[in-house]
Structure formats: structure tokens, C-alpha cells
Design goal:
Elements lengths: L12 E5 L7 H4 L6 H19 L2 H4 L4 E5 L15 E9 L7 H13 L4 E7 L9 H16 L3 E7 L3 H10 L6 E5 L8 H10 L2 E5 L8 H11 L9 E12 L4 E12 L7
Parallel strand pairs: 1-2, 3-4, 4-5, 5-6, 6-7
Antiparallel strand pairs: 1-9, 3-8, 8-9
Helix pairs in contact: 2-8
Length: 270
């Protein structure tokens, strides 16, 4: 937008709920979108739709926004639940509060109208130093609680080499049964990881998400696209939940969507 006065100057938290993007015509026309482009599209479109309906005067005093793409939020049919497999991948930027994982999973459950998902995959971007198993343990403890509550059946982790995966596997009460490895980091799965996976019945999968799936500049530009230049300042991702539902017998993606939590320190100067 060309406006210079911020639309939501006091907002410090934005929750974006894309709904089922399989049914988004905008994204259907862009089948080769990267994960980053897809997420930014969701942020920009959901925020734009929210702002079109909102009262501009009230927005001047709002402290948080919930941008639901209600038209595309679809509960799964209960009678077909046994035929479906749901996977939620949580990309966690916020390392200070492991409990945010509960919110990340619960929001995906709510969007889909289900009480459990088959699998949750945890990805923690390497923003500075390499992630250690000690870094992962507090978050894994929260995920284990979700398994105990029967909200999740299986747990997986992303981008761990054999040494770190084995450390986590040996420590965990609920063992990781999946290691999802970035295609960019290895064209061929390392032999030691393959041997360990075979021995312990661990599934090795690949993904093509970039190491930082939502860079700050891309995020802030996506927000500015739907608001003003000032409104885009200082935003950071807290967590991203990407859920997908597959029809088991046919391998067809029935639903795919994002729940994205964004934060900023409104006292911080640009």
C-alpha cells in the first residue's frame, strides 16, 4: 500500500490461518512455489482480507490480530477419518517457550476439526549454531505429553545427522520414528544413518524446505504488501504449523494449510 501512517501500530502478535490452500485459486496457478513463497502468500492474502473487513479506528488500538481465512477452513468429515492420514510439521523459531508447541498443534487440530493427528514433525531452524540434542529435549518433552494425551500418535524430527538422531532416540521416552532430511544437504542418505534407521525401524524421509523457511525480509515484505511500510517493521516468525491430509489408499492430498504465528516488539525502533 502507498499509505505512510501505520494501520495497526500497537499490534505485537498476528495469527494467520490459511485454511485449505488446495482450494486457493491464487496458489493453484503457482504450482512451483517454494515453501517460503507459499507461506508469504498466505500471510499477505490473509492479512489483506482481514484488513478489508476491519474497522480502521479500532485497528489503531488493537494489540493482536487473528487473520482467519474462514472461507477455506474446512473440518474433515468424521465418517472418513479412518481413511485419512494427517501430518503436521512445526517449524519452531521461538526457542524460549517449549509450550508454544501445544498451541501450534492445537491450532492445526482446530482448523481440521479433529481430535488427533497421526504424525508431528519438529523442525528447529539453525539460526546461529548447530542445534544440539540438549536444545531439543525441552521441546521433545512437550511433544511426548501430546502423545500421552493421544493428540499425536507418532513423532519425527527434521535434519538430524546420525549422531544427534541416535542421542535423541536413546534419551527419548517416545522415540522419534521419522528423520526428515533436507534434499539440499544430502543427495544420498548417509550410510550410517540408513543403517541405524533400518535397525530401529525408523523411516527416513526427505524434504525441500530451505533451512530458514521464513526469512525476516521476506516476512516483512509480505506484511507490507497488504498494509504499509511501517506496519511491516520488526516482525519475526514464532512458529509455523503446516498440516497436510492424505487419503491413505489413493495418496491424494485432500487438505494442506498453514497456521503461522508472528510476533514483534512494538517498542523496538526500526
Amino acid at each position: 500500500m502507498s499509505e505512510t501512517i501505520p494501520i495497526f501500530p500497537k499490534v505485537g502478535n498476528i495469527l494467520v490461518q490459511s485454511g485449505n490452500i488446495v482450494n486457493w485459486n491464487r496458489l493453484k496457478r503457482k504450482p512451483n512455489n517454494t515453501s517460503t513463497e507459499e507461506i508469504c502468500e498466505c500471510v499477505s492474502v490473509c492479512l489483506s482480507n482481514y484488513l478489508k473487513r476491519a474497522d480502521r479506528n479500532q485497528l489503531q488500538y488493537a494489540t493482536e490480530l487473528v487473520c482467519e481465512n474462514k472461507e477455506f477452513i474446512e473440518s474433515l468429515p468424521a465418517e472418513k477419518r479412518d481413511d485419512l492420514k494427517i501430518t503436521v510439521k512445526v517449524v519452531l523459531y521461538n526457542r524460549e517457550s517449549p509450550e508454544v508447541l501445544i498451541d501450534a498443534v492445537d491450532k492445526a487440530l482446530s482448523d481440521l476439526g479433529v481430535s488427533f493427528v497421526e504424525t508431528v514433525l519438529l523442525a528447529i531452524p539453525d539460526t546461529e549454531n548447530e542445534i544440539t540434542v540438549e536444545d531439543i529435549k525441552p521441546f521433545w518433552t512437550v511433544l511426548q505429553t501430546l502423545v500421552e494425551q493421544e493428540k499425536v500418535f507418532f513423532l519425527g524430527i527434521c535434519d538430524l545427522d546420525k549422531a544427534r538422531f541416535e542421542q535423541l532416540f536413546d534419551w527419548a521416552t517416545v522415540k522419534p520414528c521419522i528423520d526428515q532430511v533436507n534434499l539440499a544437504s544430502c543427495c544420498v542418505m548417509p550410510e550410517d544413518l540408513r543403517d541405524f534407521a533400518k535397525l530401529h525401524n525408523v523411516q527416513l524421509l526427505t524434504h525441500n524446505d530451505p533451512p530458514d523457511v521464513l526469512p525476516l525480509q521476506s516476512l516483512q515484505d509480505a506484511i507490507r504488501k497488504s498494509s504499509t511500510s511501517k506496519d511491516g517493521d520488526n516482525w519475526e516468525p514464532s512458529w509455523i504449523s503446516r498440516y497436510s491430509t492424505i487419503v491413505k489408499c489413493r495418496g491424494i492430498i485432500l487438505t494442506k494449510g498453514y497456521v503461522i504465528n508472528l510476533t514483534r516488539d512494538i517498542k523496538r525502533k526500526s
